[in-house]
Amino acid sequence: MTAIAFITHHDCTLHRVAAHHPEVPERLSAIDDRLLASGIGILLSHYDAPLVTREQLLRVHDAGYVDWVEASAPPQDSDTMVCLDEGDTVMTGHTLTSARRAAGAAVLGVDLVMSGEASSAFCSVRPPGHHAERARAMGFCIFNNVAVGAAHALAHHGLERVAVVDFDVHHGNGTEEIFRQEPRVLFCSTFQHPFYPFTGTEKETPNLVDCPLPRGATGADFREAVQAHWLPALEDLCPQLVMISAGFDAHREEDMADLRLVEDDYAWVTRQLKDLADRHAGGRLVSCLEGGYDLSSLGRSVAVHLDALIGY
Asked: How many domains does the chain have?
């Protein structure tokens, strides 16, 4: 069996902001602990995330934006905090390196599955990325990790059909904004609505499949939306690569949102996407961590996600 790649880096734990902020380094520790306890960790091939290059970033972000982020970064030995938006997307001394590793992980994941060294990959990284637009940081996100990976697949590997699917509780507005006019990318998403960032309800181009879910929606509602809307569009695309923005903050134990998914729902959707990748993309699938802030449910959900990718 071809390896499942698990890509992370210690640098991703060094990004830490205010004590009350939900996007904490312990998110990655919770995942590591659960994989160790479940035994799944020994079934994975472990890789260090590289630093993303400027060329790779500029495929999805404006040069002026990248320059601004780099200029805004405090020195690594500084206690300074810099807000990049209205207050929840913050840089401290190690944030820029963490963000570069997070985006670089998606690039490495694509390279591994395209070379056949891995059948699929999971990027256990932070900060998350799917809210970052071409020229705007928001929602804890600085660089759009999954978009950087998808654009790398198009530009470097010459793919013509890439699927990006997003099951975070928040709409992946940044990924949608970046790929809105890119017919080679199909973007499918489920998310709570109305809810931050209050986007995703107006279909603008044929390559966007947005499925807003009302407050209190259950796993059955989620599965119905995926079966009715995602899967037919994905089958029509016949993707050469499947990429996932894997947000686990729609879990019923999360106190930041109001969807009611459980681990079985994440396992189910992962199996659907793995089967799709097996049929059309030679199994090539890259998953990037997005949300998930309740540490216990995050660890359990990632474990079943990876278990489904392994195929047990």
From this structure: 1
